[in-house]
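Milestone M4 deliverable, item 7.
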Amino acid sequence: MKKILLLLAMTFYLWTITFAQTKVYAYAQPVVSGVSPQGIIDETGKQIKKPRSSKFNYYLFIRHKASKDIKPVAVYMKNGGWQVNFQPVDSTPVYITDVKFPLTPQKVMLVPETTKKVLSLQMDLDKSISNNPSRKLARKLKKSEIVFEYTQGGKTKYKSLKKITVLDPVATM
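Output delivered:
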């Protein structure tokens, strides 16, 4: 009897992994400025020093069955929420080039090869969401670093990710 229950549990687990409807990918790449921040002079001639703010490039993706029509709506993190723009990814796997060592650039895989449909999301930083989150969203935000909101068949759904994968920093001039 125990063997049958164990076999059923393992079968169900494998089935849920294989037929997962939606999967999300989230990456944050720190951007390090190569230019020292300049102070701002106020009207009295005093220099106001602005601390160097931490900036990130975000790479966000949603993978779903091609037969399901989904529309990404927003992305929420601990520091706020933003509406998103999205576009389909032409082909998988999805890579970015890491130029930490310019003479030997390396490819970093963001989305593995799949037959499912993949959407690339871009946060619209001009369209922040400041309303109070629903209970369901608030619960997911407590347990996760990032939550994706999307609509499917007229219903609002959420998919969360406990941790955002942090990539190696990129330097700018």
